[in-house]
Amino acid sequence: MAEDREILREVWDGRVAVCVQLASEDCNTLSAPDPYYLMVPRLSYFPLVTDKVRKHFLRFITTELNDAEMWLESDGTPLKWHYPVGVLFDLHCGGASLPWNLTAHFSHFPEQELIKCSSREVVESHFLSSLKEADGLKHRGQIITNMQSKDHKQLWMGLCNDKFDQFWAINRKLMDSTPEEGFKHIPFRLHLPCQPPIQRLIRPLTDDGRKVTLGDLLQEFLPDSSNEGDRVVIQGIEAPRETPLQWLSEHLSHPDNFLHICYIPTQMS
Amino acid sequence: MGTISYEEFTGSCLEFLKLSQELRDGWEAKGDALQEGNFYLMKLERIEDVLRDCPPPREKCDSDKDGNTKDNIGTIDIMEDCEELCLEDPSAIDNTCSKTIITYEYHITYSISYSVPVLYFNAYNHSGKLLTLQEMWRRVSPQHSEQILHQKWESLTQQEHPVLGRPFYQLHPCNTAKLMTEFSKGRKDLAPVKGLTYMISWLSTFGQVVGLKLPILYFQCQ
């Protein structure tokens, strides 16, 4: 059970400031709609929090596009909705200038780049499959398999409805481990700009019982790249490289139980 | 039990590949086997669609009206096939009833999280358009459809390809290890299934769910 409960709450409450404009090619009216401003939870997924954005733009697009799937783009790059909001923010915007300016599109869905998201069920299925995968790495899947589907539902509803207590009542079981051993492997994804995320196996302890740190992980999976000014961002903060991975996994993971690490090389900062 | 390491995976793939080349079955290796998480096998296959719900080929021979960017694999070929169907099919009584060709792209990658192979695939219709998730569910083979569709959201969905980083349909690997353990139980010596046998057993099971057939010669050549 994670001791630092306050940190869990702070992470849960993290928000990013977003400003969405309608793509000009989808605007069917003489005057463009006002941009839509919103604070979006870092831990959520865009399809769960953009209903109001869609409604706001609906009367400005042609009726043909009324049922089209809305997709978001940041500075020319379609946003992978299946990544948590905070990860996308840290990768694409990094707080260089706020709010984060996005463009909403209703046509030309880039099916080569984006997974389709026709309903909330798609998001739910994606979320649950990440949870299963993470538990597979941590506990050989034994904890999640032994949960009832109502527990899975509670995790999902807790995320959807921004209910910290509801979510963590179940999630604490997925964060369970003995202090001596920790998880079997640490579920993580290492995100770099313009490439698929790196996912490998890493244990929280070395053979001689030393705690494996964030720095160890980077050294192992990005041995060739290390420049002054490269930023390593987790949940929007630059974690010290000597932080143990087990601790990071328990406290700074996303609801999908993965530790999403954004590596921003210095020339792109 | 039922799992394999990345090294075992790449080794089995390379053995499988040799067999595929002998049988001219069309599999190719992609990426670097020595680099963890980088290696996979790929195969393109044109299959006559099992369903007849595609619109008449003649209409759809125009370029994609939505202006979607084309996949760079074989779209031109698909268009040419389409024209052949339209103009030169003397045996067709009625164009609206003629079957269409679906191009499947199968990938075999390794799942770090589950320590098993995973089957990713995409399917394109004759105009090069990606089939939707609903269309993929409808094409699951009849003998598996009940099992898969009973829990379709946990069985077959779009995911991000671990090497290419773009959308592919995937048969979820979470039950693979358990299934592969069952294969071991079928053996007299109860030894765990490994190597080429593992690959062939695995692929024949998962592939047939989504229309991928393994010629019988694979089984005879082990």
UniProtKB/TrEMBL annotation, chain A:
GO-annotated cellular components: Atg12-Atg5-Atg16 complex; autophagosome; mitochondria-associated endoplasmic reticulum membrane contact site; phagophore; phagophore assembly site membrane
Stored Pfam families: ATG5_HBR (PF20637), ATG5_UblA (PF20638), ATG5_UblB (PF04106)
Residue intervals of the Autophagy protein ATG5 UblA domain: 11-106
Keywords carried by this UniProt record: Acetylation, Apoptosis, Autophagy, Cytoplasm, Immunity, Isopeptide bond, Membrane, Ubl conjugation
Membrane topology reported for the UniProt record: Peripheral membrane protein
Domain Autophagy protein ATG5 alpha-helical bundle region: 121-176
Location in or out of the cell: Cytoplasm; Preautophagosomal structure membrane
Main subcellular location of this protein, as a coarse class: cytoplasm
GO biological process: apoptotic process; autophagosome assembly; autophagy of mitochondrion; cellular response to nitrogen starvation; immune system process; negative regulation of programmed cell death; piecemeal microautophagy of the nucleus
GO molecular function annotations of the record: Atg8-family ligase activity
Residues covered by the Autophagy protein ATG5 UblB domain: 185-262
Similarity annotation: Belongs to the ATG5 family.
Assembly, per entry: Conjugated with ATG12. Forms a conjugate with ATG12. Part of the minor complex composed of 4 sets of ATG12-ATG5 and ATG16L1 (400 kDa); this complex interacts with ATG3 leading to disruption of ATG7 interaction and promotion of ATG8-like proteins lipidation. Forms an 800-kDa complex composed of ATG12-ATG5 and ATG16L2. The ATG12-ATG5 conjugate interacts with RAB33A; this interaction is bridged by ATG16L1 and promotes ATG12-ATG5-ATG16L1 complex recruitment to phagophores. Interacts with TECPR1; the interaction is direct and does not take place when ATG16L1 is associated with the ATG5-ATG12 conjugate.
Biological role stated in the UniProt entry: May play an important role in the apoptotic process, possibly within the modified cytoskeleton. Its expression is a relatively late event in the apoptotic process, occurring downstream of caspase activity. Plays a crucial role in IFN-gamma-induced autophagic cell death by interacting with FADD.
Name of this protein: Autophagy protein 5
Species name: Penaeus vannamei
High-level lineage: Eukaryota, Metazoa, Ecdysozoa, Arthropoda, Crustacea
